Amino acid sequence: MSGEQSHHGHPHPGHPDHAHEHDHPHGEGSELSPIELRVRALESLLVEKGYVDPAALDVLIDTYETKVGPRNGARVVARAWSDPAYRDRLAADATAAIAELGISGRQGEHMVAVENTAAVHNLVVCTLCSCYPWSVLGLPPVWYKAPPYRSRAVAEPRAVLAEFGVALPAGTSVRVWDSTAEMRYLVVPMRPAGTEGWSEEALAHLVTRDSMIGTGLARDPAGASAGRP
Ligand code: FE
Description:
Number of helices: 10
CATH topology of the domain at 4-14 and 70-213: Nitrile Hydratase, Chain A
Order of helices and strands: HHHHEEHHHHEEHH
CATH class of the domain at 4-14 and 70-213: Alpha Beta
Shape: globular
Strand order of the largest sheet: 1-4
Structural class: alpha/beta
Helix content: 40-55%
Bound molecules: fe (iii) ion
Largest sheet: 2 strands, parallel
């Protein structure tokens, strides 16, 4: 692959800043917000004065991007897999069901949980910018904010999924959900076979960030050393 169009993993290595590339008609992100400007200014100052190491900041950001955030979502999914009543509440009012676990989102943000089945695979995108369920997934991955994903997820979702290594059965249709500042989506991946009787904690280890965006599936329990109960 040439690399230009590829966006699984870490695309656009030389183009990390998507903050000012387009207008933003629905509420966040294109222009830097006052808070973002202050954060950026503080980071520059701290680095300049030698108080923080940029590499340490990167580690912190990575922690939020890959650990803290997605773990919240993974708890939600594991609970839904384990507790049919919770799963129903999640389907009926995801914002409230997520709050039950002590996870709260930003004001005005409504969460919708969309569950994958053998018939339908859900995929989340924000075609206009990078609206993303921060409270459950943490920081969005770079590719989520990149124009190729934003445009192609809608136009050719199966090709995009294939690039992420997801091959769906022919009988499974793909439904694409376009996030906005008002509505954010959490994909509930299918529970892997062979996990009967697993604890919620063990199940949560099978739930990846990408599986909750729809660009991945839950981990294969046979390959997960996370452990049975
Ligand atoms: Fe957006």
